[in-house]
């Protein structure tokens, strides 16, 4: 670190280049006088809102004391001076000082220069924004379950399963029809009356304070990191700032949030145009490309590079803005900065049907999408999930640079940030139980808690240490073991009473500065939507139509379905036009089949509802414009149904077209079938808005179809429907369309011959009378076909309005996690050896040589080689990590080795214990844990693992019996620390259930129950906080110690997690090997290998080797990362 500071200071002298690490900074300084060089560097710092390095300040102070610099100097904040001496500097202070130098170099990179030049050419005003939160709070009131008293009694030992009670286990309330229905609720209330003598009319509630007395001041040009244990309120804090929380009588948001003196509920301001919120869950359309996703966001929220901050009347600025619009400059620049330019034409994809970008790249698409919105305040909730450490570092660095250039505010919550990423932030906010226990500069946070008697251990990430401090594990970090560990209230009080805390409160009380902050006004903030209603509808229509066209499987399946059903029905009723009863049955069956096909649209609409919620909250478009655009995009499907199915049926059955009828009757038939398909689809779409999930929607749809069929006029003739139900017949779209089809056939002119028994009656009219298609005794005339069409059009409009209303009024939230009510039992060991059982398994070593994998591009026939000659081995009894940037091919390689790739071309050799890999035998001895695994929600943890064991263990093995099976499942649960919660229901995101981390461990347990010899895991620690990740890693370590081979892809390991692995296979973007071998103690083998090359920057004290190696090989998202002149993969090979 001292060498790097010396290089930066030396850059101000003769302009000579003294080393690799300082060359880029030195090149920005002209070879002129020392005074001028210092002045120019200070101006550069001031322009980019960068803290001045200590070495430069020292040089300036020395010159000021000597009187050699007499010119006016830019001022810098005294608060940014490092308080630690060089001999006692913290890890974060050291990295932050290095980061300040990197910022100066980064500001001179092409992309940063380009952004500044464009803003300059557009003469964009540099606005300032300040956010103040005073006494922010959030309180939630939830109803207690009906069996709450029974739960309390079990806790006190007055009931329940004695075995479970003895073991300290508690069975949770599992919501089912039997336990949560109205009948059981009444029985429990009746039991309450007999016990207490009082009826319980209202349901009892429980109030929980999620966030309490939060006071913050956030400034322009700064980036804030929010840290804390799960459940501490990180997401809630960000949602309070973004005004994105549910607010009703059960959800109360307190306190005030202001930006530049304007409160969040101020009218006519639309707060979401000021603050954007990026959720931790990726909600993206899988069939859109990366560029299309970002471009849609830009077109909805910004539309043009000509913003209100620019001089509207300047023709030069207008011309420049139009040129940028034509080039899609904003979207292209964001993609370039995020490292997504090379995959801009690749589908976003998902984890099931559509192959697209990698999981880490998908997370970057989420960030890029909302970055294109351009809000002055951005809240990013756990944006690093699924990203590798180097990419996270690059994105955070880019966000910081963007904040400085655009003078915006960014608040980011992260789970496991490495030290070098933490050092990129200006300030840190540490939460515990909804309270702030620290808020201030990042470089001072370690000193703050060390002054309270705690000590940061060697080789522990500061972020992990900070999150563990307020927990019970924080006592382990006390220097004096006799000192009392502070409680949450004591941590809060210690910060509030500190100089930093008191200064923050004084700043909140100070009046808003009148001159420094720009007024929040103009259409950008007072007009909810950027585009007009019709422009928004057009955008939504074009997107939905594109998604429909790209879903080739669904499109082909629909055409094939219509064709096959038309052939089957047409051949069954071949030329049966002479039989009126048969014709009526064919017409009814046609409507019924078309309506059932329309039901298929509901499930996909429920699946993408989360995307709609996100974009609705961000003011992308009016809800009505979205629904109308979606409705119009559904028209091609109805046309296919009518043309393919309707044509076959009409001519095969021999419906009216001659003998008095015309071809117009055929086209009227197609029009009626088309209107039926379209109207049924819009009618059923209402259920996608009101239903919580697919199952509920299916129940609603079943009832709706039964009612439509029952009162259609076919099952029960209209003239015999009771008077008190006849209104259903007249509002039933199905009845109107069946009547129109029947009238179109029998009033076509083909059936105008007189009836033999009544020469004054036509045959067609007699058929209508016989089947009840009459009005006041007279058969319906042909005009009723048009009446049916008009009624259906009116129904379509009514359904669109209902869908709009319900989408606005009903917001389906996810269920709460049972984890919040679970006891933390800590590390579970194997205390009783009698409870363990040993099932034999073959110890294996997996070797692979020259692995190549090639696929076809998403939108073209281009061949993409994702893996290029990968060699390596996975040894039994050891843990091997697969690492690399997002898109480097880690999961792809693991899928190839685990025989999970069904498409693409695979080349190379894979051997198991020296024998060629054979599919059946390998699958029996291998386990694979997906990143987002799915388990049956209704089963408990033990039942899930037991099912896996019974289905996958060899029943012919004499060691496998009922007793050993129970012991094996118990042993597996203990290995993954799930024994204490084994009777908890798995649940789901909708109904509530296990936490994300507990589901990860359950997925591992399910695979381990099959007694595999080798276990593959795809990102087992992604999306977990430090403590949860350490629990998962403990389980993996136990698995490897049992002799099994463990291979895991890993993205952002802490120093401790990275050190847990024995070997490493490091890939670079493009699927090439950079390093393979044992890590060695403290990763010494890896560090020694990479530092052999002159272009490798030295690793800093306290720096995470995982992040350092990824940054070194250019694995980040920054364009500069991939343009390093040195090719490590070529040197390795």
From TrEMBL:
Key words of the record: ATP-binding, Membrane, Nucleotide-binding, Transmembrane, Transmembrane helix, Transport
Signal sequence annotation: none
Protein name as catalogued: ABC transporter domain-containing protein
TM region(s), chain numbering: 583-603, 632-653, 665-687, 699-718, 724-742, 784-808
ABC transporter domain location: 194-458, 846-1095
Lineage: Eukaryota, Sar, Stramenopiles, Ochrophyta, Bacillariophyta
PANTHER family: ATP-BINDING CASSETTE TRANSPORTER
PROSITE patterns cross-referenced by the UniProt entry: ABC_TRANSPORTER_1 (PS00211), ABC_TRANSPORTER_2 (PS50893)
Region span, Disordered: 1-28, 56-84
Pfam families registered for this protein in UniProt: ABC2_membrane, ABC2_membrane_7, ABC_tran
Organism in which the protein naturally occurs: Odontella aurita
Family: Belongs to the ABC transporter superfamily. ABCG family. PDR (TC 3.A.1.205) subfamily.
Keyword Protein biosynthesis: no
Coiled coil region boundaries: none
Gene Ontology terms: cellular component: membrane
Protein localization: Membrane
Membrane association type: Multi-pass membrane protein
Gene Ontology MF annotations: ABC-type transporter activity; ATP binding; ATP hydrolysis activity
């Amino acid at each position: 670190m001292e060498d790097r500071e010396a290089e930066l200071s030396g850059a101000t002298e003769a302009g000579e280049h003294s080393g690799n690490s300082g060359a880029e900074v030195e090149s920005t300084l002209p070879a002129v006088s020392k005074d001028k060089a210092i002045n120019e560097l200070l101006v550069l710092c001031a322009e980019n809102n960068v803290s001045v390095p200590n070495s430069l300040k020292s040089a300036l102070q020395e010159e000021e004391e000597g009187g050699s610099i007499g010119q006016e100097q830019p001022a810098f904040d005294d608060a940014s001076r490092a308080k630690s001496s060089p001999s006692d500097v913290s890890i974060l202070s050291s990295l932050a000082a290095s980061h300040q130098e990197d910022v100066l170099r980064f500001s001179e990179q092409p992309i940063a220069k380009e952004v500044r030049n464009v803003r300059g050419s557009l003469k964009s005003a540099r606005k300032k924004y300040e956010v103040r939160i005073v006494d922010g709070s959030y309180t939630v009131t939830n109803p207690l379950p009906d069996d709450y008293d029974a739960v309390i009694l079990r806790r006190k030992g007055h009931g329940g399963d004695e075995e479970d009670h003895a073991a300290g286990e508690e069975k949770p309330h599992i919501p089912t029809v039997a336990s949560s229905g109205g009948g059981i609720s009444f029985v429990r209330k009746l039991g309450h009356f007999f016990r207490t003598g009082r009826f319980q009319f209202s349901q009892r509630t429980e109030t929980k304070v999620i966030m309490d007395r939060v006071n913050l001041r956030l400034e322009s040009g700064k980036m804030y990191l929010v840290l804390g244990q799960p459940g501490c309120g990180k997401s809630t804090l960000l949602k309070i700032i973004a005004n994105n929380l549910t607010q009703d009588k059960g959800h109360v948001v307190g306190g005030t949030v202001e930006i530049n003196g304007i409160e969040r509920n101020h009218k006519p301001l639309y707060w979401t145009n000021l603050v954007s919120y990026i959720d931790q869950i990726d909600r993206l359309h899988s069939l859109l490309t990366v560029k299309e996703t970002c471009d849609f966001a830009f077109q909805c929220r910004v539309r043009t590079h000509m913003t209100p901050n620019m001089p509207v009347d300047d023709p030069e600025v207008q011309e420049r803005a139009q040129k940028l619009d034509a080039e899609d400059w904003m979207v292209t620049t964001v993609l370039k900065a995020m490292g997504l330019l090379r995959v801009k034409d690749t589908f976003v994809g998902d984890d099931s049907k559509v192959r697209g970008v990698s999981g880490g790249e998908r997370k970057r698409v989420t960030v890029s999408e909302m970055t294109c919105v351009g809000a002055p305040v951005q809240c990013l909730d756990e944006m690093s999930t699924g990203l590798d450490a180097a990419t996270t570092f690059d994105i955070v660095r880019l966000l910081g640079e963007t904040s400085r250039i655009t003078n915006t505010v960014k608040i980011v919550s992260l789970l496991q940030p490495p030290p070098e990423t933490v050092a990129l932030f200006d300030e840190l906010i540490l939460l515990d139980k909804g309270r702030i226990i620290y808020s201030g500069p990042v470089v001072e946070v370690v000193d703050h808690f060390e002054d309270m008697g705690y000590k940061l251990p060697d080789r522990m990430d500061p972020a992990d240490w900070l999150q563990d401090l307020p927990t019970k594990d924080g006592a382990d970090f006390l220097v004096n073991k006799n000192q009392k560990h502070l409680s949450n209230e004591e941590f809060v009080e210690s910060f509030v009473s500190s100089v930093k805390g008191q200064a923050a409160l004084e700043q909140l009380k100070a009046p808003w500065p009148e001159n420094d902050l720009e007024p929040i006004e103009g259409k950008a903030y007072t007009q909810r939507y950027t585009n007009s209603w019709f422009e928004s509808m057009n955008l939504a229509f074009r997107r939905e139509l594109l998604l429909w066209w790209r879903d080739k499987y669904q499109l082909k399946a629909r055409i094939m379905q219509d064709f096959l059903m038309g052939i089957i029905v047409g051949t069954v009723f071949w030329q049966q036009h002479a039989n009126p009863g048969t014709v009526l049955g064919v017409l009814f069956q046609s409507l019924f089949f078309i309506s059932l096909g329309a039901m298929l649209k509901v499930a996909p609409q429920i699946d993408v509802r989360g995307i709609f919620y996100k974009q609705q909250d961000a003011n992308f478009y009016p809800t009505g414009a979205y629904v109308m655009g979606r409705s119009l995009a559904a028209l091609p499907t109805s046309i296919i149904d009518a043309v393919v199915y309707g044509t076959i049926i009409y001519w095969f059955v021999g419906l009216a077209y001659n003998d008095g009828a015309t071809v117009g009757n055929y086209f009227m038939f197609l029009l009626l079938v088309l209107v039926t398909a379209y109207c049924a689809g819009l009618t059923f779409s209402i259920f996608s808005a009101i239903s919580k999930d697919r199952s509920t929607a299916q129940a609603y749809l079943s009832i709706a179809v039964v009612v439509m069929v029952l009162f259609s006029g076919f099952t029960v003739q209209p003239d015999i429907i009771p008077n008190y139900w006849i209104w259903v017949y007249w509002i039933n779209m199905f009845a109107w369309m069946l009547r129109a089809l029947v009238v179109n056939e029998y009033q076509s002119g083909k059936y105008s011959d007189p009836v033999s028994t009544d020469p004054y009656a036509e045959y067609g009219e007699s058929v209508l009378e016989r089947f009840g298609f009459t009005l006041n005794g007279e058969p319906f005339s042909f005009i009723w076909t048009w009446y049916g069409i008009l009624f259906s059009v009116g129904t379509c409009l009514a359904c669109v309005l209902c869908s709009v209303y319900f989408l606005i009024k009903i917001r389906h939230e996810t269920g709460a996690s049972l984890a919040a009510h679970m006891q933390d039992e800590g590390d579970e060991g194997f205390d009783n050896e009698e409870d363990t059982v040993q099932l034999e398994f073959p110890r294996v070593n997996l070797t692979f040589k020259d692995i190549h994998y090639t696929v076809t591009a998403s939108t073209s026939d281009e061949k993409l080689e994702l893996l290029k000659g990968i060699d390596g081995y996975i040894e039994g009894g050891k843990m091997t990590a697969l690492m690399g940037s997002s898109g480097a091919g880690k999961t792809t390689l693991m899928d190839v080795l685990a025989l999970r790739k069904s498409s693409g071309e695979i080349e190379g050799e894979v051997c198991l214990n020296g024998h060629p890999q054979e599919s059946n035998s390998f699958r029996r001895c291998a386990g694979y844990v997906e990143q987002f695994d799915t388990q049956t929600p209704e089963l408990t943890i033990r039942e899930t693992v037991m099912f896996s064991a019974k289905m996958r263990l060899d029943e012919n093995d004499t060691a496998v019996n009922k007793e050993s099976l129970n012991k094996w499942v118990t042993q597996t649960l203990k290995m993954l620390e799930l024994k204490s919660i084994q009777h908890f229901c798995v649940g789901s995101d909708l109904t509530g259930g296990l936490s994300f981390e507990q589901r990860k461990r359950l997925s591992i347990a399910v695979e381990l129950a099959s007694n595999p010899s080798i276990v593959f895991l795809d990102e087992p620690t992604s999306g977990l906080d430090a403590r949860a990740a350490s629990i998962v890693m403990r389980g993996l370590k136990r698995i490897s110690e049992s002799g099994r081979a463990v291979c895991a892809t890993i993205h952002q390991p802490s120093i401790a997690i990275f050190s847990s692995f024995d070997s490493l296979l490091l890939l670079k973007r493009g699927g090439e090997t950079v390093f393979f071998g044992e890590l060695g103690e403290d990763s010494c083998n890896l560090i020694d290998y990479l530092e052999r090359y002159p272009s490798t920057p030295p690793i800093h004290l306290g720096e995470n080797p995982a992040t350092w190696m990824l940054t070194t090989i250019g694995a980040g998202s920054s364009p500069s990362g991939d343009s390093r002149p040195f090719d490590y993969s070529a040197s390795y090979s």
